[in-house]
User: What shape does this take?
Amino acid sequence: MSARGFKLMASVATLSALALSACTTSTPQVEAMAPAPVAQPAIPSQYRPEELVGRWGYGAYHNDADLARTTAAARGQCGQPVPITRGPGGGVMMYLADSAELQELQLKGSQNGKNYVGPPGDAGGPQDREIVSFDGRTMVLRWMDPEVAGRYGTGVYVRCAAEGGGPRSAGRPPMQPAPQR
Assistant: This one.
């Protein structure tokens, strides 16, 4: 082999080694998908179905900084409220993701102190929603399935005033219209 052929072969070998090492050391980081929810045996929830029954304004957000704005927007949706009613088996009638039919969902607690609403079965399953917060007037629900959560966001339910009842305080007379000039 000539000196020129040897140099060419050595150059090719060096470039091949560099190219191969670049493939193994510069692999771009692949974002790990959020882990699938880990379901746990359900225990009684700290909430009762009758606490959720009612008419609710609804909104959803993807960014936690939007919670206050979304809560105000949900309050404005009481003209077209989302009803939550009792189910025939003692649960509540609500919609699951990607379903146009009401289904009876159960309130479920878990050993880690979290509460969920979802179909019968373990707590924290992929079709469940975690009850992030609930004070009787405002309820925040987060989908457990990361793909569903990415599409629907975190739901905010704001309880609407009873039909025929307004937001005025008990014992306070209704406001009179302003005099015409």
